[in-house]
Specification:
With 56 residues, this protein is an all-alpha fold. The protein contains one helix and no strands.
């Protein structure tokens, strides 16, 4: 049985592995981008508040 299945597994397995790695890589990139955008918006709001406080 394995003699007939192995060529198909050998052909599709690298594609599956690369797809899984790509999924996790993109997931981490998008999560990092989301966190960076959140931190940037928090920093900008803090800077805006500091600017308003210093202008009086």
């Amino acid at each position: 049985m394995w003699d007939s299945v192995w060529p198909y597994l050998a052909a599709i397995l690298p594609t599956i592995i690369v797809a899984v790695l790509f999924y996790f890589l993109m997931k981490r990139i998008l999560e990092g981008d989301r966190r960076e955008r959140l931190a940037q918006s928090q920093w900008e709001s803090e800077q805006a508040n500091d600017h308003k406080d210093n202008s009086h």
